[in-house]
Structures are given as structure tokens and as C-alpha cells.
Design a protein that fits this description.
- The complex is a heterodimer.
- By secondary structure, chain A is an all-alpha fold.
- Chain A is built from nine helices and no strands.
- Chain A is elongated.
- Chain A starts with 6 loop residues before the first helix and ends in a 5-residue tail after the last helix.
- Chain B folds into two domains: 50 residues, no CATH class; 121 residues, Immunoglobulin-like.
- Chain B has five helices and nine strands, in the order H-H-H-E-H-E-E-E-E-E-E-H-E-E.
- A five-stranded mixed β-sheet of chain B has the order 3-9-8-5-6, with no helix packed on it.
- In chain B, a hairpin with a 5-residue loop joins strand 8 and strand 9.
- The chains are: A mainly alpha, B alpha+beta.
Chain lengths: 179, 199
């Protein structure tokens, strides 16, 4: 009988030595950790490194039953992500020896990013109002903050946020993400 | 043991706007923490964040392509030039004209229009043919009263494919009743220097 296992259930099973549960934990958590890595490290390869580092630490902790309350798994994963990102920022040294030891289980295939129609996106951006297009271009050129864009355009940060939100909503509609 | 696989619908999905703010790192620390906790348990919202990231990356690529027609700020222009992009800029005097072209290795093409905007709250940029017939209007462009100029990026791919021709840029102040006043007029005489068929 199929049973929908919670993440916490997996943690308990891993502590009991269930290898299949370990693989499932990696399959579930890998993409989530990768998203965290993309957000904070802004690099696919660095995000992949983060996945391996964090999964390694999680499995080690769960195997040795160091996580006493399985319901705290999310906090544990997030905390480990944060610490590892700090470590990765401090040093570029790779822990290849550890990765070689634990092998493929730690490298779940990353999920493919959604395919975007670049031509349609260009048409949608060109159809924005002038202010919206200016804000979008200046915001996304290199991830400029609302404050920086506001200074450049001589308006308020709040106004930039409103313009950007409105533009993005329109773009999502234009790209078919919102009906 | 059989472990089922599949996305479970999220009962409290994070709004796309919040996900974009998360990606742009503009959330407060507490809001960011809440989003991250949710994403660590919710693959449906993770999928939506991937869509947001794809959109952001697409916009980033588009912004860097130089193919958009868009009004930009002086700071942004300087930032782009400092990054090493090859910027070709023409700045005809108000009421005057300039000979211009674009080469194959140019990245950005800019028109700098000198203008006094101190008493203007709304401005339109009208692009006209040599006879003064309006071909395109950029309505309510972003302006700074203290800027002293408007910088308009033209599509570099369009310019590279354009035949030799002339174009007039007309900056107009527009009041609440829709009345227009010409702030400045600038003529660009474009000479095509890249061989090949016109686009």
C-alpha cells in the first residue's frame, strides 16, 4: 500500500538505517536546497555544490540519530543551508574527498528550468508602459535593488516596487503564466 | 517500501510577486525566513519559484541584449559602460542634428537629448520621419527634473539592420489636459555602414 510519507517520517526511517528513505530524502530535498543555493549564491555550479554539502551533512546527522525531533527537519535543513552558504562564501575550497566518498546519492539530477519563449518575452517587455520598461530593464540588468533604481530615476523606492510588481504581473499574463 | 512521487498542490501558495521579491533579495529578514521555510516543504511553490527565476533570467538577458527601446538613467548608462559594454552615444544639440551610424561590435545605441525638465511633470518622446509625421510615441517617459537630458536606448539590432535614413526625435511636455508643448527637437541622420540586406 502506498503511503505518503512526510519528510519527518523519512528522517525517522533514515535513523533506522533505511537506505531507500535516504535516496528519497535526497530526491526531495536536493531541488529545494538547490533553489536556496541559486537564490543566495547566484550560480548553478555553486548551488549544486551546496546541495551536495548540505545533503551530506543531513544524512550524516540522520544516520547517527543526531536530529532528535524529526519534526524539526526543515529548521535543521535551513540552518545547515545557511551555515554552508557562509562557509562557501568564506572559502572556495571544495570538499572533493567527501563527495568522492559518498558518490552519486548526493547528486540528484537538477530539475530543468522552465523554457521561456525569448521572442515573446521581448514582445511583452516592449508592450509595457515606458516607466515600467525602464524599471524592468534597470532592475534586472544586474539585480539592482529598488533603492538603486529609485535613485537613478529620481522617484521613491516604494514607487519603484509598485511599478515593478505591476510590470511583472503584466509580463506573467502576457507570457501565459496567469490566465 | 514504495514511496509515491508527485506534486502535492499547495494550500497556501506564496504569491508570485513575493517570490520575485525573494529572488531579488528585497524581502525583510523575517519575510525571507518565512518564504524559505515554506519552500523547504513545498515543491509546488518551488516549481513556481523556478518559473519566476526563468522570467528573471530572461529579463536579465533581454536587458543586456541592447535590443529594447527604453529610456534609461545617467547612472545606468555609466554603469553599463563601466562594465565594458561598447556604448555608442549620439547627443545632438537641441534644435540641431547629428550624423550617426552603428558598427557591428557596438552593444548599446543611445540618444542623449539635452532638455530642461525643471518645469515638466510629464514628457512624451515622439519619433517622427523627416517630414515630421509621427511614427511612434513613447508616452509618459521616466524623467528627472534635475537630469538636464533624456537618454533613450534604441534597439541595437534594429539600428544595425536599418537603411540609411533620417529620423526626428521630439520631446513634448504634456499637461493634465493633454496639451502639448515642444521641449526640443533633434534630428538623426543615420548612415548604414554594415553590409547586408536591410532588416
Amino acid at each position: 500500500m502506498d503511503i505518503e510519507l512526510r519528510d519527518a517520517d523519512l528522517a525517522s526511517r533514515i535513523a533506522d538505517g533505511d537506505r531507500e528513505a535516504e535516496a528519497e530524502m535526497c530526491r526531495r530535498m536536493g531541488p529545494r536546497i538547490r533553489l536556496y543555493g541559486l537564490r543566495h549564491l547566484r550560480s548553478s555550479s555553486a548551488a549544486d555544490d551546496l546541495v551536495q554539502h548540505v545533503l551530506l551533512k543531513i544524512l550524516e546527522a540522520l544516520r547517527s540519530a543526531r536530529l532528535r525531533d524529526a519534526d524539526k527537519l526543515v529548521h535543521f535543513v535551513l540552518g545547515t543551508c545557511r551555515m554552508t552558504v557562509l562557509d562557501l562564501r568564506r572559502t572556495t575550497q571544495r570538499q572533493e574527498e567527501l563527495l568522492a566518498t559518498y558518490g552519486g546519492d548526493l547528486s540528484p539530477a537538477p530539475l530543468s528550468p522552465p523554457k521561456l519563449d525569448d521572442r515573446q518575452l521581448a514582445r511583452c517587455v516592449q508592450a509595457l508602459r515606458e516607466r515600467e520598461r525602464s524599471v524592468v530593464v534597470m532592475s534586472f540588468y544586474d539585480d539592482r535593488t529598488a533603492a538603486e533604481t529609485a535613485r537613478a530615476l529620481g522617484t521613491s523606492e516604494a514607487n519603484i516596487r509598485v511599478i515593478r510588481h505591476r510590470a511583472l504581473q503584466q509580463l506573467r499574463v502576457c507570457m501565459g503564466a496567469v490566465s | 517500501m514504495t514511496i509515491p512521487f508527485g506534486r502535492i498542490e499547495c494550500s497556501s501558495p506564496v504569491e508570485a510577486a513575493v517570490l520575485m521579491d525573494y529572488w531579488l533579495a528585497t524581502l525583510s529578514a523575517s519575510a525571507e525566513d518565512a518564504v524559505e521555510q515554506h519552500l523547504m516543504t513545498c515543491d509546488a511553490c518551488g516549481d513556481r519559484l523556478r518559473e519566476v527565476i526563468a522570467l528573471a533570467e530572461g529579463l536579465r538577458a533581454l536587458a543586456r541584449s541592447g535590443t529594447l527601446q527604453v529610456v534609461i538613467s545617467e547612472q545606468f548608462r555609466n554603469h553599463v559602460a563601466q562594465e565594458g559594454l561598447r556604448v555608442r552615444e549620439y547627443a545632438p544639440p537641441r534644435g540641431g542634428s547629428v550624423q550617426c551610424t552603428v558598427s557591428a561590435d557596438d552593444d548599446l545605441l543611445l540618444a542623449r537629448l539635452a532638455v530642461d525638465l525643471t518645469t515638466t511633470s510629464r514628457a512624451d518622446l515622439s519619433w517622427c520621419d523627416p517630414a515630421g509625421v509621427e511614427l511612434q510615441r513613447m508616452a509618459d517617459i521616466p524623467i528627472r527634473a534635475d537630469a538636464g537630458s533624456v537618454i533613450c536606448q534604441q534597439s541595437i539590432s534594429w539600428a544595425k539592420a536599418s537603411p540609411t535614413s533620417s529620423m526626428i526625435a521630439r520631446l513634448l511636455a504634456v499637461d493634465d489636459e493633454g496639451n502639448e508643448r515642444v521641449l526640443g527637437e533633434y534630428t538623426f541622420h543615420h548612415t548604414r555602414t554594415i553590409s547586408g540586406p536591410p532588416g
